[in-house]
Specification:
The protein is an alpha/beta fold. About 50% of the residues lie in helices and about 15% in strands. The protein has 7 helices and 6 strands, in the order βααβααβααβαββ.
Length: about 150
Amino acid sequence: MCRYILDTDCVSLILYNHPQVTANVAKHQVSVTIVTVQELFNGWIGRINDPSMLHNLPTLYSKLWTTVKYLQTIEVLDFTAEADSCLKKLLKDHPPLRKNRLQKDMRIAAIALSVGATVVTRPFPTYSLNPRVTPTSFSTDNPIDFHHFKGR
C-alpha cells in the first residue's frame, strides 16, 4: 500500500481547516515526519517567545495545543539511519539541493525515500530540483501535488 507523507505546509493548511486539503487528505493513508514536527514546534515557540506577541499568548498557546492534538492522531515517521543515508546520497548526487533553505525539505524527502513513500506538498521548486521526483496533481481545486520519491 502506498504511503503519503504530508509536508509541513500541508499540515499547516490542515490546522487552519483548509477545506480541499482536509477533504483530500481524509481519502488517503497519511503520515508526517519528525522534521515537520520540528518545524511546527519551532514556528509556535518562536511566536510564543516573541516579546511583541505577549498580548496574544492565549491564542498562540491554543494554536500550539491544536497542533499537539493533531500530531497525536497521525503517524510520525522518524529520521532513521536509513533516511540519513538517503539524505547523504541525495545531497552528494544533486549538489543544487545542498542549499540551507532546502535542508528541512530534503530531510523530509530522505525519509520518504527510505520508506518508499510519496510526499504531499504544494508545487514548490524544492522537490522538483530532484530528478527522482515525479509530481502528480492532488487536487484540481487546490495546488497540492503528490511527489513520489523512488527509493528503496
